[in-house]
Amino acid sequence: MMDRDKALEAVRANVCNENLIKHMLATETIMKALARRLGEDEETWGLVGLLHDIDVELTADDFSRHSRVGAEMVRGLGAPDEMCRAILCHNEVHGVPCDTTMGTALFCTDPLTGLITAAALVRPDKSLSGVTVETLHKRFKEKRFAAGARRDVIEACGGIGLQLEEFLELGLKAMQESSADLGL
Q1: What is the chain's percent helix, strand, coil content, to nearest 5?
Q2: DSSP category for residue 77
Q3: Which residue among 13, 44, 102, 120 has the highest number of C-beta atoms inside a 10 angstrom radius?
Q4: Is 143 helix (H, G, I), strand (E, B) or coil?
Q5: For 5-8, which contacts have Cβ atoms below 8 Å and span 24 or more sequence positions?
Q6: Top-confidence residue, 74 or 60
């Protein structure tokens, strides 16, 4: 199994955009919190969150290649099949079902980070510290707010046994605990 330092090094070698890296770090932190909550392996789940978009700049605008290339890159780093499959299924274009808890968790966590980040960035202090679950829930209902954060995908959290409110709270708390690393 690869270690986090090598995984982060691989991310930084393949992704230049700091905001994309922060998204991957946010996904990592929420995935670790989900693993804790669900009794899963935090290290593995964190790594899949960190690495899930490792190919995003390499595949650029070709969404049909995104995550397929990434899964192969992560396999080359020594990731087990379950991590590669989770990365592959987070992009619906491939038609790979999220038939594992890890895959479903990654699928619904990916857009959640965007919703939470947007909620922080519209605040005067551009900080996560003042964002509340109530605010997130209100923003969730505003379809134009963070429009790219697909609500139907976030609601897939039911597939891992969480209600939307619980998922929003878990994600927000995880990101707040890592706010220094996320620049929020």
Answers
A1: 65, 0, 35
A2: T
A3: 102
A4: coil
A5: 6/77, 7/47, 7/50, 7/51, 7/77, 8/50
A6: 74
Please give the share of the chain, as a percent, with pLDDT higher than 70. 99
Q: What's the pTM? A: 0.96
pLDDT of res. 132: 97
Record: fold of 4-182: Hypothetical protein af1432 (1.10.3210)
Q: How confident is the model at residue 1 (pLDDT cuts 50, 70, 90)?
A: low
Task: Write out the two tokens for 9.
Answer: 């090094």
Rounded to 5°, the CA angle 179-127-182 comes to 30
Choose among 111, 67, 109: nearest CA to 91.
Answer: 67
pLDDT at 157 over 80: yes
Nearest CA to 101 among 155, 47, 156, 153?
A: 156
